[in-house]
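Section 3.1: Structural characterization of target chains.
Under the original work plan, the team committed to producing a structural model for every single-chain target entering the pipeline before any wet-lab resources were allocated. The record below documents one such target. The sequence was received from the expression subgroup and is listed exactly as submitted; it comprises 185 residues.
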Amino acid sequence: MKKQLRSAFLVTLALSLGACEHLALSLPQVDAARGFLAGARSGADLSEFEWTLTWGGETAPVIPVIVEDAFIFTNPSGVAVHFNGWQVFRVEGLLPRATITRSVEDSGEHRIYAGDRLIEEGTCMPWVRVPLEEGGFEWQQDCDPARRANRLRIDNAGNMVTIEVTVHPAFEALRLDRRVGVAEN
């Protein structure tokens, strides 16, 4: 049973990193994934699915899981970074007592909240595709009032390899980097 659970989880993760856009998982599965990740030290090697989260001078490994229309990058410590393909819209577990939420409207208007408190409001420009010298390209979006850029880096094979988004005006951008050597699906 334990081996079947591990196999099912690994297949789910592999599909979530691949082209399967229509797979939907419920929130209890994210909790189960966290529990599995916490226990994985004794068996399964999940390193090929890891991304690295960098924020506030700290780094941590996270694994993406698909829940409804979003990826949630999570780990056993309770961090959850919700990403919809263009924006990080919710972050849990980075601030001691507050969930960070971000919204960017079609008009470009954006707001960032820590809990119920509005901590930033401004305007984001449309995304711009910028080719990179080393290959691939980057989608960039400048946001006022601080002229910070959100970035989505895509490699030559068309895989997203970096997500960089400002989620709190008092900190450098939150960054998610796909580990080098992660299995391609």
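The longest strand covers residues 58-67.
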